[in-house]
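Hi there,

I know you've been waiting on this one. I reran it after we fixed the sequence typo, so this is the corrected version. Both the input and the resulting structure follow.
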Amino acid sequence: MAKLKDRIKTALDESRMLILGAQVLLGFQYRSVFEPGFDKLPFSSQYLKLCGLCLMLIAVGLIMSPGAFHRIVEEGEDTERVHRYTSNIMGLALMPFALGFSIDLYVAAEKLLGRTAGVSAGAGLCLVALFFWYGLEAIRRREREPKIMEKEMESKKKEQDDAEGTKLKDKIEQALTEMRVVLPGAQALLGFQFASMLVEGFDKLPASSKYVHLASLTLIAVSVVLLMSPAAYHRIVERGHETEHFHAFASRMLIAAMLPLALGMCGDFFVVIRKITNSSAAAITGAALMLLFFYGLWFGYTLYRRGQQGEASLASAANDHKQYASR
C-alpha cells in the first residue's frame, strides 16, 4: 500500500498540475472582455462568457482550497482527512472546468458557424470531458475496486523482486511530471486561441483560416481534456493508490493527448504563415513540415529506438541461450 504522505503528495501534485493552467486560462477570460471583438458578440454570448468566467473562478477556488485546509484544519499534519478532502475537491473542480470549456467553444463556434453549430460543438466537448473525467471513472471503478488491493500487493512484490528497475512510485511521479510539462502549455495555448478570436485582426483573416483556427482550438481543447483525465482517474478509480494500472492509463492518456496537440499547434501555425506570406502553399508546406517534426520526434524516433531495444534484448536472450546450451 502507498504511504499516506505519498498519497497526499501525489494528490497535491495533481492539483498543482491543474491550477497552473487554470490560472492562465482565467487570465485570458478576464482579458477577452476588453478585446474589440467582445462588443460585437451577441448579448447572449457576452453573458455566457461571464458565466464561463464565474465557472473558472469557482474551479480555481476549489483547486486552491486543499492548501488552506491542510494548513488551517490539520496544521500541516498528513491525515486521511486531507487526502480525502483533496480527492473530493478535485472531483468537484473538474465540473466547472468542463462547463467553462464548453461555453468558450460554443461562443467561438457560434461566431463563425452559427448557433446550431455552436451548440453542437459546445455540447460535444462537454460530453467528451464528462466522459473522460467522470463516466470512464465510474465504469472502471466498479471493475477495479475488488482488484485494487490485489494489484497493490503484486506491484509491491514486483518492486522487491526487481530492485534494479524503476520503482512504481517513481514511474508514477515521472508520468505526472511529464504531464505537468505538457498541460500548462496546452491550457495557455487554448486560452490564447479563445482570446484571439475577439481581436480586431481575426475578423480580417480569410474564411478558411478562421475555420482552421476553430478546428485547431477544438483539437487543443480535446488534448487538454485527455491530459486532465489521469488526475480524475487516480482520485476516483484508484483512490490515490499507486498501481501499475494507473501508470499504464496515465501513459496512454499522455501519448493520446500529444496527437491532437500537435495538429492544433500546426493548424494555428498555418494561420500565422498565411497571414504573413499571404500564400496558402507556403502555409500548407510550413505547417506540414512542423507536423512532421513533431510526429517524427515524438513518435517516429521513439518507436524506432524502442524497436532497436527490442531487437537488442532478443539478441541478448538468444546469446544467453546459446551459452547455456553449450555448457
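Quick highlight: The first helix runs from residue 4 to 32.

Best,
R. S.
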